[in-house]
Amino acid sequence: MKKYVIAITVITVVVIAFNLASCGGNQTPVPEGQDVYGRTLGEIYDIDSQPSGEFRAAYEIGDTSFMGQTMISANSADYVLIKKSGDGYALTCLFKKGVLSAVGKLTGDDFEEGVVSEEGDWQAVTFDVQRAELDEKIVLRCTVKAMNRTVNYSVKLDMKNTILVG
User: Fold this and answer.
1) pLDDT band at residue 124, thresholds of 50, 70 and 90?
2) Residue 107 forms beta bridges with which residues?
């Protein structure tokens, strides 16, 4: 029995280590140059001081188990995209294609499924958000296809270090 427990523990640690190691590989290079307003792409800008643009923000995953955090981070980009147009905001989360489905935002008892598109090698899921939501934890729900299991989790964006990408 003791050997069985040790074997399971070793396998679990190896799987977790593999998934954590793969998180760093989910990064996409930041574009270089300038946008149409002469702002430098790849630089940190205060999103509130800009009239429009597309920004990249790092985030932390919370409100789920350690295994849930590991699975989500291993299958997601390590950033989200925030598109600002006037007073409107859209949040785009990026996932490995074919891994998750029915990705949506939870607000109280309401569930808003995101608009799905492709962004290069990623499945992009976009939601309309209010500016105040970007400073709070945003609660998401998705279905992990391989397990046919619905998972709730939250993302907390790093709004102090938003990078202009478009």
Assistant:
1) very high
2) 110
User: DSSP character for 125?
Assistant: E
Task: Give per-residue pLDDT as tens, 3-56.
Answer: 654 545 545 544 444 444 334 445 667 788 898 888 999 999 999 999 999 999
Residue 153 CB partners (closer than 8 Å, separation 6+): 61, 62, 63, 64, 68, 69, 72, 139, 140, 142
Tokens of 18: 């593999």
pLDDT at 163: 96
Q: Which two tokens stand for residue 19?
A: 């998934």
Distance, C-alpha 163 to centroid of its chain: 15
Long-range contacts of 148-154 (CB under 8 A, 24+ apart): 150/102, 151/64, 151/68, 151/71, 151/72, 152/63, 152/64, 152/106, 153/61, 153/62, 153/63, 153/64, 153/68, 153/69, 153/72, 154/61, 154/62, 154/63, 154/64
For the record, the structure tokens of 165 come out as 């990408």
DSSP 45: -
* Digit-coded pLDDT (tens) for 91-113: 999 999 999 888 889 988 889 99
Taken in order of first residue, the domains within the chain and their CATH numbers are: 2-164 (2.60.40.1850)
